[in-house]
Input
Amino acid sequence: MDLLSIADHYNVPHVQWLAMRFLTATPERVTAEMIVRDELCNGAGILHGGALMSFADTLGACATTLNLPEGARTTTVESKTNFLAPAPAGTKVIGECLPLHRGRRTMVWQTRITSTEGRLVAVVTQTQLVIEAAHT
Output
């Protein structure tokens, strides 16, 4: 899939609500950016952990999709997040998703989320299940 195809494939309401924008999409690396809007923040005006995790989860799912065999699909089966620094409202975060393991049954991805200044905001490691195409 090319970048435009990825953007179209992930043009679903939740991703639209996050307003994330894919920057690169290859089987080895997926990147995207997201503006930290008020509606994505907690009461302290900092990017909510769930919004951050959803951003990373979408990148990992996208990366897995780029590596799937014909007709297969994926779902997240495990995710772990280390929150390292705040991302205040009005700033932009950038996610870079790289493979740790790309197997036939599972894939493991690590997404580093940074500020535009390069400060590490979070590290997310997730496992994606590869669901084979149904044979008819």
In short: Residues 3-131 form a domain with the Thiol Ester Dehydrase; Chain A fold (CATH 3.10.129.10). The chain has a mean pLDDT of 94. The first strand starts at residue 21 and ends at 26.
